[in-house]
Design brief:
The chain has four domains: 218 residues, Spore Coat Polysaccharide Biosynthesis Protein SpsA, Chain A; 154 residues, UDP N-Acetylglucosamine Acyltransferase, domain 1 (3 Solenoid); 128 residues, 3-Layer(aba) Sandwich (Rossmann fold), CATH 3.40.50; 76 residues. The strands form ten sheets. Strands 5-4-1-6-11-8-12 form a seven-stranded mixed β-sheet, with helices on both faces. Strands 14-17-20-23-26-31-34 form a seven-stranded parallel β-sheet. Helix 9 crosses helix 10 and helix 14 runs parallel beside helix 19. The radius of gyration is 30 Å and the shape is globular. The longest helix is centred in the C-terminal third of the chain and has 16 residues. The protein is built from 19 helices and 41 strands. With 605 residues, it is an alpha/beta fold.
Length: 605
């Protein structure tokens, strides 16, 4: 017996993905709010729910996108009951649904759906149509060519008895689709018996119902689908939605322009004289006279100049594309930087993918499958990705010239100590270096390498009690004499659009005193010091910590330092671009002697 179609059911929409593989678009907007044909992807799912009389929805978000999603859905769907919950740690879709436990535990059934997937038809209705009263839910399956990449159903007598995640020996070619109906009690009970942790192979929600002896009705979906996971998926999803809903012209199109029936022109968009928009393109901006837009997406508020060729490309929001710009799109062996590695796209034609607020000057061309991150002003042909997000500096002799003033500063400490014993400052300095510094300089313990520690050892040897005063004398003299390295002040000002960080062997107190004296503190988003890491350089924890806290990958970073082995070697191994300041080892990607040269390197990236 089929369940009545008006059965009251709560939906859970999983939208907690961070979009790390969806750059450059996820850098400025939650990926599920990426607009298609005039509305965000998320809204297509809400429309499917609403069309099937499901008006009570929980959206599982992450902390970064929760407010954005809450505000947009509240305004667009005032008649639906939409609740927002936050998944703090991404442990898969089953954990995401469990995050909503307080809101779903009293429901007999829930309908869940992944918000970053799209299909060529509404999948809610056929699921409800096959839902049987005596079942514990509905499983949606589809045939796939490579079962080892998916969660695969094992069937017995036409009944699904198990779902095997990415099997080496697949029991069938029927993969689980990211939408289903679950008996809430069985799902939550099964999930609580499992222990989830980062890196564990994910278990799809339906499997937990099966583990509790549940019976799932299933049906096979034979249509197309896309997942909005990587930047080129904008084109695939745009085409799928145009095939599903058809092209439409809502904006202004010059009588001499040609827009074919597969395309979408948004309200407020303008297509100029003799322009051509073809092959499943969407335009939500201005396309000026004589320009060809083929198989592309032009996002909101972007302007494309005269006589351009925009082919199989995604032009992000608020771009300004100069006259006669051309995007090459014959992929061949081209790859795209995705998260932390290069991937070959799944199509033969792929052009340029730009983030928000990009400017491309006139008469330039881009090679196939290139990515430009938000806010770039492109003045040369795009023959490589423009993906720099962070510039990371060593401190001593990179930001400021410590080596030139450190001896005089040490002598200030020795003069302070000499007043309290029968030794001269010169004698104390020699003893300090020979007896303590040489012995301690190989230690990896920051506490032992701290000047205060070696000064204390010297003072103790001579029964001097005021160690604090000696260290203050050293620090005062150091900051009085300290000078910035050539060009650094102007460079930091120019580099403001990027995330800036410092990683130094100095302790935090000393580092901040130096930066404050030179007026540099406000430039940096993050300062990592040896007392925070607990080890001296070289140690991988410095760069790893910065990448994690700035939310960048090594390939998105430049690291600048004066000592290749200590400052640059490990980031270089991880894939960062390295710049050796004043050095001559030849091991770094670049060597500079003035930070004006660093600006030139950045401009060329």
């Amino acid at each position: 017996m089929l369940l009545r179609r008006n059965h009251v059911m709560k939906a859970v929409l999983v939208a907690a993905g961070s979009g790390t593989r969806f750059k450059p678009y996820s850098l400025t907007k939650s990926k599920v709010l990426t607009p298609f044909l005039g509305k965000p992807l998320l809204f297509y799912h809400l429309d499917d729910f609403k069309d099937n009389d499901i008006n009570d929805v929980v959206i599982v978000c992450n902390r970064d996108n929760a407010m954005e999603i809450a505000n947009s859905t509240k305004q667009a769907y005032p008649d639906m009951r939409i609740a927002i919950v936050i998944q703090d740690q991404q442990l898969g879709p089953s954990d995401a649904i469990q995050t909503a436990e307080r809101l779903i535990q009293d429901e007999e059934f829930i309908l869940f759906k992944y918000a970053d997937s799209m299909h060529e038809q509404d999948l809610v209705k056929p699921m409800l149509d096959v839902f049987e009263d005596d079942s514990d839910g509905v499983l949606t399956l589809r045939e796939v060519g490579d079962p080892s990449r998916y969660g695969i159903a094992r069937l017995q007598n036409d009944r699904v008895i198990e779902i095997v995640e990415k099997p080496q020996n697949p029991p069938s070619n029927l993969a689980v689709v990211g939408i289903g109906i679950l008996r809430t009690e069985k799902f939550l009970t099964g999930l609580k018996k499992d222990k989830l942790y980062k890196g564990k192979k994910e278990v799809v929600p339906q499997e937990y119902v099966l583990r509790e002896g549940g019976k799932l009705t299933h049906w096979v979906y034979n249509g197309k689908r896309t997942d909005l996971g990587k930047p080129w998926d904008v084109l695939l999803t745009n085409k799928l939605l145009l095939e599903r809903f058809g092209g439409k012209i809502e904006g202004s199109v010059d009588p001499t322009a040609k827009v074919d029936e597969t395309c979408y022109v948004a309200r407020g968009a303008v297509i100029g004289k003799n322009a051509v928009v073809t092959n499943y393109s969407s335009v939500d901006g201005v396309v000026r006279d004589g320009t060809l837009v083929e198989g592309s997406v032009i996002m909101k508020d972007s302007q494309v100049g005269l006589r351009c060729v925009i082919a199989n490309s995604v032009i992000g929001e608020n771009n300004k594309i100069g006259d006669e710009v051309e995007t090459k799109d014959n992929v061949k062996d081209a790859t795209v930087f995705v998260k932390d590695k290069d991937e070959k796209p799944p199509m033969e034609k792929l052009g340029l993918m730009t983030g928000k607020d990009v400017i491309i000057q006139p008469n330039l061309h881009s090679k196939p499958a290139k990515v430009v991150y938000p806010g770039r002003n492109i003045k040369e042909h795009i023959d490589k990705d423009k993906i720099l997000r962070a510039v990371i500096f060593d401190a001593d002799d990179t930001l400021y010239l410590t080596g030139l003033v450190v001896k005089e500063s040490d002598m200030a400490a020795m003069e302070y100590l000499a007043k309290q014993c029968d030794k001269t400052a010169e004698e104390l300095h020699q003893e300090w270096r020979e007896r303590f510094v040489q012995e301690l300089q190989t230690s990896t313990d920051p506490k032992k390498r701290h000047r205060f520690h070696s000064l204390r050892l010297l003072a103790t040897r001579h029964n001097i009690k005021d160690i604090e005063g000696a260290y203050k004398a050293f620090l005062q003299k150091l900051t009085d004499l300290l000078r910035p390295t050539p060009g650094i002040q102007d460079a930091l000002t120019e580099l403001k659009p990027f995330k800036l960080a410092v990683m130094t062997e100095d302790p935090e107190e000393t580092t901040k005193a130096k930066l404050m004296k030179l007026g540099m503190t406000g430039f940096f988003d993050l300062i990592i010091t040896s007392d925070q890491i607990g080890k001296m350089k070289p140690d991988k924890a410095y760069f790893d910590t910065i990448c994690k806290q700035l939310d960048v990958t090594p390939r998105e970073c430049i690291v600048v330092g004066d000592n290749y082995d200590k400052d640059l070697s490990l980031p270089h191994q991880d894939g960062a671009l390295t710049v050796e300041f004043g050095g001559a080892t030849g091991k770094a990607d670049h060597t500079i002697h003035d930070h004006e040269e660093l600006l030139e390197i950045v401009k060329n990236l």
